[in-house]
Specification:
Blueprint lengths: L1 H6 L8 H15 L6 H7 L1 H5 L4 H9 L6 H14 L1 H13 L7 H12 L5 H14 L3 H11 L6 H7 L18 H17 L4 H14 L3 H18 L1 H4 L4 H15 L2
Helix pairs in contact: 2-5, 2-6, 5-6, 6-7, 6-8, 8-10, 9-10, 10-11, 10-12, 12-13, 12-14, 13-14, 13-16, 14-16
Length: 261
């Protein structure tokens, strides 16, 4: 099907551009769901050239409720690469609107993972913060944790998702993260960030320390304690090299917190 679309000019009939766009986004998915529309255009330029109105067509595809939520997310990702302003506006609209179907949470999780890396510094964290405060799906909020954990500007939001920071009450929300699953995801993301990103090692470890001292949910405490000792041991080398005594102090706090469980 893809070869036919490349070798032949698009038929001049109603819906031809939509079919061509379908093939374009299908090709993106076939190339690993990680290939941008621009990369696709470079690889198979005939597909991109067959789209007379790329932005409107991708906008339409990203909003089609009768297709796969993953297909919609990839269409929106492609739109962001060719028309950033339109893509951002549609992304905000889809994330704020009432869910059109029971599967929309799959779209929101996928589109955030696909599109957040494409957003500018000016727009990324405000959008993710809004989602964390208002999205009703714990599956979506769980996905946010890995997106922000290794970013210095993401640490306040990570603490919010770990249940450590309060926000103004909104309809249907408590003052802090209500889901133990989301709080557990925040802990796991903090552990990974502490090991992988020196820039956030201190704040990420503090998340673990504070969770162990404050949370009471069995799931959160079990996962936190399982990872605290291994993380503290891994970070113990910092003290041996005299790089940061603050981290060693936090490591000791984490171990003491485990003994109090």
């Amino acid at each position: 099907l893809l070869r036919m679309r490349i070798d032949r000019p698009p038929p001049r009939r109603h819906g031809g551009s939509t079919v061509a766009a379908f093939v374009a986004v299908f090709a993106i998915a076939a190339l690993g769901m990680k290939t941008s529309f621009r990369q696709l255009a470079q690889t198979v330029p005939g597909v991109a050239a067959s789209l007379p109105e790329v932005s409107p067509t991708l906008t339409s595809l990203a909003g089609q409720e009768d297709v796969s939520p993953f297909f919609q997310a990839e269409a929106l990702r492609a739109l962001l690469t060719v028309d950033a302003l339109t893509g951002l506006a549609l992304l905000r609209q889809r994330l704020r609107a009432k869910a059109p179907s029971e599967k929309d949470f799959l779209f929101r999780r996928q589109v955030l993972e696909q599109c957040a890396p494409l957003l500018s510094e000016e727009h990324r964290m405000p959008l993710l913060t809004e989602v964390a405060h208002h999205d009703p799906s714990e599956y979506v909020r769980m996905g946010l944790c890995a997106l922000i954990a290794q970013r210095p500007d993401g640490q306040p939001l990570l603490r919010r998702l770990a249940g450590l920071e309060q926000v103004p009450a909104v309809a249907g929300q408590t003052l802090s993260e209500p889901s133990p699953r989301v709080r557990t995801s925040a802990v796991l993301a903090a552990v990974d960030a502490a090991l992988a990103s020196p820039k956030v090692k201190g704040p990420a470890l503090q998340v673990l320390v504070d969770v162990l001292g404050r949370d009471t949910a069995p799931l959160v405490l079990r996962v936190s304690s399982d990872h605290a000792a291994a993380l503290a041991e891994a970070l113990g080398a910092v003290f041996d090299h005299g790089e940061d005594e603050t981290l060693v102090h936090m490591r000791c706090e984490a171990l003491l917190a485990i003994t109090r469980l």
